Amino acid sequence: LGGWRISGKWTSLNFNRTLRLLMSQYGHFPFFRAYLGPHPASPHTTVIQIDQPEFDVPLKQDQEQKIYAQIFREYLTYLNQLGTLLGGDPSKVQEHSSLSISITSRLFQFLRPLEQRRAQGKLFQMVTIDQLKEMAPAIDWLSCLQATFTPMSLSPSQSLVVHDVEYLKNMSQLVEEMLLKQRDFLQSHMILGLVVTLSPALDSQFQEARRKLSQKLRELTEQPPMPARPRWMKCVEETGTFFEPTLAALFVREAFGPSTRSAAMKLFTAIRDALITRLRNLPWMNEETQNMAQDKVAQLQVEMGASEWALKPELARQEYNDIQLGSSFLQSVLSCVRSLRARIVQSFLQPHPQHRWKVSPWDVNAYYSVSDHVVVFPAGLLQPPFFHPGYPRAVNFGAAGSIMAHELLHIFYQLLLPGGCLACDNHALQEAHLCLKRHYAAFPLPSRTSFNDSLTFLENAADVGGLAIALQAYSKRLLRHHGETVLPSLDLSPQQIFFRSYAQVMCRKPSPQDSHDTHSPPHLRVHGPLSSTPAFARYFRCARGALLNPSSRCQLW
Fold first, then answer.
1. Which ranges form a coiled coil (predicted)?
2. DSSP assignment, residue 40?
């Protein structure tokens, strides 16, 4: 990469050569992101996407200037530590770190919010590589993208999806300006960013510097402190990422056998039937909309465990000849990163008639795909404590069942958006909207916890509706099957076990992704739906007017 002036060893290489190496060999994208994704007009067609960069600092467009400055001060301290750990002269480290912060700040100022780009119709712009070269000439787009997406064969007429053209134009001007006046500082900015990206694969000093930065940034942004995360957990995650083709088949064979799959499908069928019944009685839907909604549920595809593609025998026997594991942990990680990128590109080049899964089989995140009209429940979700064929039905319906119902309600998100259902009773729908927002706003928030009710509204509605649908399905099951199993060590009725099971899987510790989460904080995901369900207050004998037994409730679903 040519080194950097911080250590005194500096070879002024071609800027685009360094950028090309960073992108293709290290998976580091200092000025923009480039990745493969669905074509906006044809979801099953893959196209290269160029988007804004992901900054390592938690910046927001509407951030107070005081907080903004404090965040950059903490980040500057962190960069100084990195430069010193890498053997840099302290005075040079300070100078180059400050310039790197300045570059990051200027790039951040170029960003335009997602909502603004969407409103202006500029979120998905189709351009060729040649056209992008004219707009942002500082980057050798063809050579950088060709190296990154080998073995794809690219040409100047290759179409790309660009998500923020104005940002790329301004970024290019900044790079050209730096190349003319401060080329060595631009090099240091790229190398410092690379070290930040690679820090999880470096020694404990880099780990500790990163931990202290994260702690300080969470304090500044008033987020609760993160619990300590053991290093072995990171290693397990990375192993799963790098060797997924082999591990997927082994995991599903071990953890999601035919009996588990059959029991999970029975649970899903009960939840789906309860949803269809509920759709027939929604006061804000007219008959035509109800029929349309029921048809959408009936046509839905469901995939469980793992995708058929992931379970192909030849993938399980993959030999990973391109991965070199040696005594250097960093070099081993880099070898795995390069191998993974090549496999991802290769998989996108192959025909893939079925839905392309967005999660690994051991993940616990279910999701609904709008483009393919399919709902996905990975094998990791259909494990304890969410689900087990031998569990009492109350546990399975309360945990996995409510999650299944939540995902099914994603089918109808469009109806809840302004103007999304012209044939609906929009006055009743708006009243239900306002009622739910007021309901969630009434709950006290723990210290250093915040949420945006506009951002979380759709997920809140799915949480409340999902619990109600799961309870309806379970109640129907109780009518048909007598002698319900309970948990001997808990003095709880089946209905109380149902609600306890729901709360158990929703209640969790905060995670690093929470600031970008469209879900409410964990305690609200417990209290919001439980307090919206009259049966909960009845079975737990909550006093009228108590936090979880309010005097009035909302019904959207």
1. none
2. T
